[in-house]
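Researcher: I'm preparing a figure for a lab meeting and need a structural model of a single chain. I don't have an experimental structure, so a prediction will have to do for now. The sequence is pasted below. Please return the structure as C-alpha cells so I can convert it later.
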Amino acid sequence: METTRSKTVDQGDEGFDAAVRGVVAPTGTAGGTLRLVRTDDFDSLDPGNTYYAYTWNFLRLVGRTLVTFDTAPGKDGQRLVPDLAEALGEPSEGGRVWTYRLRAGLKYEDGTPVTSADVKYAIARSNYGTDVLGAGPTYFRHLLGTDYGGPWREPDADGPVTLETPDDRTLVFRLLEPFAGLDLLATMPSTTPVPRHRDTGADYRLGPVATGPYRVASYTRGELAVLEPNPHWDPSTDPVRVRRAERVEVHLGKDPHEVDRMLLAGEAHVDLAGFGVQPATQERILADPELRAHTDNPLTGFTWIYCLSSNIAPFDDVHCRRAVQFATDKAAMQLAYGGAVGGDVATTLLPPTLDGYRPFDRYPVGPDATGDLDAARAELKAAGLPDGFRTRIAARKDRLKEYRAAEALSAGLARVGIEAEVVDFPSGDYFDLYGGCPAYLREHGIGIIMFGWGADFPDGYGFFKELVDGRAIKERGNQNMGELDDPEINALLDEGARSADPERRAEIWHRIDRLAMEHAVIVPYLYPRSLLYRHPDTRNVYVTGSFGMYDYVALGAS
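Model: Understood. Here is the structure written out cell by cell.
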C-alpha cells in the first residue's frame, strides 16, 4: 500500500528543494516510461554482489528484501518496515537469536513460490561465496560465523548451519554474539531471495530473478537496461511499492555532460547515480529561476573521502599520511563539486546526518581550508622525506567531479613536494577489480584511492563496519582501503553492535571517528550536497533519508 503520511507539494507549487520538504507531483496513476540515465554502468544487478547506493536503491524495483525502508521523504524514509517478512525480526536470547516469517503467497516472476530456503541461499552466496562474488558486504558472515565455504566450494552443503529454515516460511538466525540491529541488516540486497537452480554465478547480474514490481526484460551492459512489469508481483503482499510506470529504461555509459543534456531536454527524468549535475550545468541552472525550481540540494548522508593505503610505501609511515592530511587543499576539492552548493568542507568521517556525529578537526587546514603547508612539511621531515615522494591516485573519470577533485588534490600535494599522478578507472568495476583489490593497488603503486562513503544502513555501525574494521579486509570488493586494523576500533565495533542504548552507541561511533582520524588512513574532504534535477514530467518525487537521493521505488512519469 502507498504511504500517505508525508506532506505533498502540488504540481503548481514546485520549487527549489521542494522534494526535500515533501512529495512533488504526487500521483496514484500508473503509465508511461520512466527514463533514468547514468554515466557508466551498475556495479552489478546481482543483489549479492553490489555496493553502490544507487544500485541498492534501484534494485528495490526488481527484488524484495526481508525488511525495507518506508517510502517517505526525509527522515521518515529511514523508518523500517517488513517487506518479504510479515513483521520485523523477533529477537530472543538477548539478541543472539532472530526469527523472521515470510508472508504467504510470495512468488517469483515465473510464478514459482518464494521460500525461506531461497533467502538462506541468497545470504550464503553473497556472504560466503566471495571466490565468485566479492563486491558486496559480508555482515552476515561475521555474525553467523561457521567454517562454511560457500555454495560453489561446497555445493552439497545447505549453507551456514547457524541460519535455520525449519519450514518454507521461517528463518532463524543464530548469531555468534548479540546484535541489536539485525533488522537494519535485513534491508540489504543480499536478503533478496535467489532460487538456487536459477543462479548463474558471476553472470547472475545479467538477469536477477524478480520478486518486486518489475522484472529485467533486457540488459546490455554499459548501454541499456529495461524493466517491464512482473506479472506475478502481488501488491497486496507489498507494503511499500506502487508500480507507477509501465516501463523503466536506464540509459548507461553516457558522457557526464550528455547526461545533463538529456535531463534538460526531457530525454531522461533523473540521473540514476544521484550525484547531481556537472559544474557547468549547475551554474546554468542556478542562474535560471525556471530550471532552479526543478532542483533539490540535499545533504546526501555521504562523506567524500580518499584512503591512504597503510601497506603501500611510503604510506606505511603515519607521518607521510599525516603530511597528506595537512597538505590537502579542501577548498579546491570543494570547488570541483561546484563550491558550497556541492557540499560542506568535511573534517570528520561521520556525516552530520548520522547519530554520533560531533564536529572536530584533527588536521586543521587553515580558516580557508587550503591546507597547512608548514605542518605538512614538518610531518615529511619526521618521516625522513623532507623533499616529498611520489605516489598515484585512483579516481573514476566518468564521475567528473571526483576526477577533478583528484586533480585538485594532486595540485595541492605538489606544493610540499608530493608528486601524485591521477589514474582513471571505470566506476562499474572500481571496487571489484581495481580500488577494492589490495593486491592490484600494491602492484601498481596506487597509494591514494578516491571514493565516497555512506552508511550501508542509517547507523554508525552501518557506516564504520566495512570501512575501518580490520576483520573486514577482503581480496576483492574491499572497502577498508586504508587496511586499518586497530584492536580498539574492532572491539568498539563489537560493543556498538551489542548495545541497544542509542546514547551509548552514539558515544562509540564518535570514539571510532576520532581513533580512525588519528591513524590518518582516511581523509574526509566534503559532506556532499547534490544539485539534483527532476524533469517536470517526473511524478511522485522526493528525497529519501535512507539513500540521500530520490526514491526510485516511488517515481512515476507522465
